[in-house]
């Protein structure tokens, strides 16, 4: 039985299933061409072309709510009407312009380019993070103190200047240098390493001082 589009010209109707991403499901027929119809939403300025082949059934005029059954679920996105979750359907710019689509199974070049761009962005971000981490580690590993195991309190002050603060807990002595954001640590008067403002080791001398500095309680 042929579809009776004439009834749609006289009354508003609803689409079932409703078009996704359009809040109000009230439509009016604006124009009919050979292969498609132009409908407009009554609550917004959205107009879409729907191929007649997508229309499965039109309810009879004596029903309280006139409805148009669609052959499959559609969605409206970025100015395009498309079958939901499958093929892209382009809106024609003029009547008779067709209901363009990407055939089932055909690859989308735009999606491929988008995926490649996203992958390149992620890769670049990963490389930047690696470079930043290496820079931080190098900064932490070399505070630029130029101190050795042969330096004592006098030579530390001679090289770095007087400390802003001094903290003692025999046999340890910590000299605070705020411009360098570090504590110079002496044991029995000899330099063994340096700690940052959070008491994390940033320098050490000798094979046994690193474990000692990592576990040294703050004082």
Helical coverage, percent range: 10-25%
Measured between the Cα atoms of the first and last residue, the distance is: 93 Å
Order of helices and strands: EEEEEEEEHHEEEEEH
What global shape is seen?
rod-shaped
Summed up, the domain count is: 2
Mean pLDDT: 82
What fraction of residues sit in β-strands?
A: 25-35%
Helix/strand-derived class? alpha+beta
Low-confidence stretches: 138-142
Total of helices: 3
Describe, in plain words, how this protein is organized in 3D:
The protein is an alpha+beta fold and 219 residues long. It folds into two domains: 5-109, no CATH class; 153-215. It has helices at residues 109-141, 153-160, 209-215, and strands at residues 14-16, 27-32, 36-41, 47-51, 55-58, 67-70, 74-77, 80-83, 165-169, 172-177, 182-187, 190-196, 201-204. The strands form four sheets. The chain has a five-stranded antiparallel beta sheet, with helices on both faces. It is rod-shaped, with a radius of gyration of 37 Å. Residues 138-142 have low confidence and may be disordered.
Annotate the secondary structure layout.
Elements: E1 14-16, E2 27-32, E3 36-41, E4 47-51, E5 55-58, E6 67-70, E7 74-77, E8 80-83, H1 109-141, H2 153-160, E9 165-169, E10 172-177, E11 182-187, E12 190-196, E13 201-204, H3 209-215
Parallel strand pairs: 1-6
Antiparallel strand pairs: 2-3, 3-4, 5-6, 7-8, 9-10, 10-11, 11-12, 12-13
């Amino acid at each position: 039985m042929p579809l009776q589009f004439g009834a749609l010209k006289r009354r508003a109707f609803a689409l079932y299933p409703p078009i996704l991403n359009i809040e109000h499901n009230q439509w009016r027929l604006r124009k009919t061409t050979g292969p498609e119809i132009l409908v407009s939403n009554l609550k917004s300025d959205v107009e879409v072309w729907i191929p007649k082949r997508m229309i499965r059934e039109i309810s009879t005029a004596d029903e309280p709510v006139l409805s148009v059954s669609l052959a499959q679920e559609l969605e409206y996105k970025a100015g395009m009407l498309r079958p939901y979750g499958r093929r892209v359907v382009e809106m024609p710019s003029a009547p008779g312009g067709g209901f363009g689509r990407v055939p089932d199974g055909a690859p989308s070049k735009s999606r491929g380019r988008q995926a490649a761009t996203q992958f390149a962005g992620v890769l670049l971000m990963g490389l930047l993070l690696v470079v930043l981490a290496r820079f931080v580690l190098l900064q932490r590993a070399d505070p630029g103190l130029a101190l050795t195991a042969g330096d004592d309190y006098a030579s530390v002050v001679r090289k770095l200047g007087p400390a802003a603060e001094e903290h003692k807990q025999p046999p340890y002595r910590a000299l605070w240098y705020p411009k360098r954001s570090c504590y110079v640590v002496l044991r029995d008067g000899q330099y063994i390493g340096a700690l940052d403002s959070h008491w994390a080791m940033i320098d050490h001398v000798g094979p046994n001082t690193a474990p000692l500095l990592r576990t040294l309680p703050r004082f």
